[in-house]
Backbone:
């Protein structure tokens, strides 16, 4: 079943590009109805524009607080009637409003470790390396109104090697993310994700 998704991003859009490629290959049945960025002139917008996807910029720094920013964001979002919001490197604080249970994010670590405000991109991988842990990974989760605290949908791990630097570790985690995020979106589209408090139960195929 095809679902209408709106993609929220703030940067280069590599996660977004992966979803588009999966869709174009017939591996993911989605219609991207709009792409909204909290920063202007980012590559993620260019990726959408090349495919004729409507784009918008709601620049976070133009607003005095999170509430006014989210007022503007949801005003732009409303006409598209998206089934699901997909965060793809969106670093501003999102208020879900009518999208509770319909907003997914992917984080480049094993939540609750190395997560929360300020943990994004290379900052996460640097913290992982500095901690000395032997495993890290990626987490897809439903969003709530805070950073990285919503119910976990999927997690998977990769090893941290002794000779890793930020770039090599990031590449390994990103490869994992490219597989994990489409899987979670498919499960949502199939109606197979059931939230029970802090847990997400994955239901069998219908």
Residues:
């Amino acid at each position: 079943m095809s679902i209408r998704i709106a993609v929220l991003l703030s940067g280069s859009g590599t996660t977004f590009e992966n979803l588009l490629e999966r869709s174009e290959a017939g591996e993911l049945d989605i219609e991207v109805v709009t792409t909204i960025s909290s920063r202007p002139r980012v590559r993620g917008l260019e990726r959408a524009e090349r495919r004729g996807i409507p784009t918008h910029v709601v620049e976070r720094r133009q607003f005095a607080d999170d509430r006014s920013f989210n007022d503007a964001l949801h005003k732009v979002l409303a006409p598209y009637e998206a089934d699901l919001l997909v965060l793809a490197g969106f670093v501003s604080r999102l208020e879900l409003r009518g999208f509770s249970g319909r907003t997914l994010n992917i984080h480049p670590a094993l939540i609750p470790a190395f997560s929360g405000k300020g943990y994004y991109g290379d900052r996460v991988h640097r913290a992982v390396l500095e901690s000395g842990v032997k495993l890290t990974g990626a987490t897809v989760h439903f969003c709530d109104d805070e950073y990285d605290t919503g119910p976990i949908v999927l997690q998977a791990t990769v090893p941290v090697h002794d000779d890793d630097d930020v770039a090599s570790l990031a590449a390994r985690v990103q490869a994992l993310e490219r597989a994990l995020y489409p899987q979670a979106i498919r499960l949502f589209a199939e109606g197979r994700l059931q939230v029970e408090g802090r847990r997400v139960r994955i239901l069998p195929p219908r």
